[in-house]
User: Fold this.
Amino acid sequence: MKAAAFLYGAERKIKAGKYKIPNGLSYIQLVQLLVEGSPVSQKLVSIPEGIWQPKLAEIVQRDLDIDSTEFMELSYDQNFLRSIGVNSFSLEGYLLPDSYYFFIDISPVNFVRKLVNEMHKFFDEEKKKRAEELGLTIHEVLTLASIIEAETSIKSELQTVSGVYHNRLKIGMRLQADPTVQYLIRDRRSPIVLLKDLQIESPYNTYLVTGLPPSPINNPGKDAILAALYPKEHNYYYFVADGKGGHKFASTHNEHLRNVSEYRQWQREQRFKK
Assistant:
């Protein structure tokens, strides 16, 4: 094969890709195919940060023609999860969001393997060591990162939000994170958390249970994972939306109540303008 490529002058002309190769080709014909032929096309698929598993199933069905039901079943297949090094009851949280090129005939198994391998590569020795310093497992880091990811869309806030949750975990204070309740009601048409939802009995309801939920509540991106590993040091224990897309942070409950009052006033003003 090397000799044929050398004789054909093709050593630096072969195009990388996936090819359909008919039977019976000579070495020269095979080299010609790899130089002059057209590899099977790949498709660029973007996976958003913080995506829920059912929404990801919709994307892979739409963009890669992977059966969404088969994908969801694979997400909970314990034998498969163990075989790819996922220590969880679900794949959710272990599929690293990014933009990837996939062959259009990729199987559900190979799709999952690619994303999980990217997550494994992202957790290099430095990040694993940092998790140990924090007293957290990789699973717990991903769980915390998924909550941070869902709390803010402003990248500059990620580490501050992370610091709030780390502070709460240190003193045994409940996280009281709305995204964990939204996770419980995600099949409902409206994602708005109602007061009655805060009473749902579940290990994922951080209004009732102390500590982290059992597993990630979405697939967090790299920035959220890094924020979970490297929280900003401060004395904040509370935060609330500021009405401008960001949040106001507070150290005391009284300060937090004032911020909440200001936010509710802003909401009333918006309704009045309408």
Observations:
- DSSP finds twelve helices and four strands in the chain.
- The mean pLDDT is 93.
- Residues 253-273 form the longest helix (21 residues).
